Amino acid sequence: MSNSDASAAQRGRPTVLDRGAIATATFRLWAERGYAAVGWKDIAEATGVSVRTLVRHFAHKSDIAWIGVPAATRRLRQALEDTPEQTPVSDAVRRAIVASIADDPMTPAGPDWIQVVCTEPELAVTAPAAYRPWIAELARFLDQRVPDITPTAAAALASGYQAATFSALVSWCESGSHERAADAADEALTWLSVRAG
Fold it and tell me: Where would I find the HTH tetR-type domain in this sequence (predicted)?
């Protein structure tokens, strides 16, 4: 293959977009320079993905911040589905939440991610929509497992768990701890309990 043929092949659309690598590089840029100071061109240079491709996959720059939430939602759902019936609800919820943020390099729980989403108003505004599916999964489980709970109460309780988890991650980040983020969330969530009857 000639150099011109190789160049033409490299200019084509990537067959698979590595969303994790894009998010990791972008979070690092945002943490170093600030969210507002980083444009699409900077993200393209850091990731090796063209601006045109980035914009095709992410309608807004803020969408990159929530790239790990769908996978975390799938892990949460699977952990809840795998929970034995006899497991106390509070334990089931805590374990599933920890599973949703653990053991995945694309988990939205790294220090760069937390630093950015805690300090950028544009991201704070988009957070409720990003977390809605995760909260809905947890609310569905609570609605099924907690006698007499209303759907409204289940949704409120699930939202409370999401807020508590995020707060634990923020504290973990600010402390400079060397423990895993999931372990910090696990410890914090042991203080919450659901009255199941």
Answer: 16-76
- Percent helix, percent strand, percent coil in the chain, to nearest 5: 70, 0, 30
Under a CB-based contact definition with an 8 Å cutoff, are residues 40 and 125 in contact?
no
10 Å Cβ neighbour count for 74? 14
The answer to whether the CB of 69 falls within 8 A of the CB of 131 is: yes
88-98 residues labelled b (16+ CB within 10 A) or e (exposed): ebbebbbbbbb
Distance, in Å, from the CA atom of 1 to the CA atom of 4, rounded to the nearest integer, reads 8
Helix (H, G, I), strand (E, B) or coil at 68: coil
Both tokens of 52, joined, read: 């045109």
Domain that holds residue 128: 68-189
- Name the pTM for this structure: 0.80
47 and 91 together in one domain: no
Question: Which H or E run includes 21?
Answer: helix 19-33
Query: Do the beta carbons of residue 73 and residue 100 sit within 8 Å?
Result: yes
**Interval 81-113: pLDDT, tens:** 999 999 999 999 999 999 998 755 445 546 777
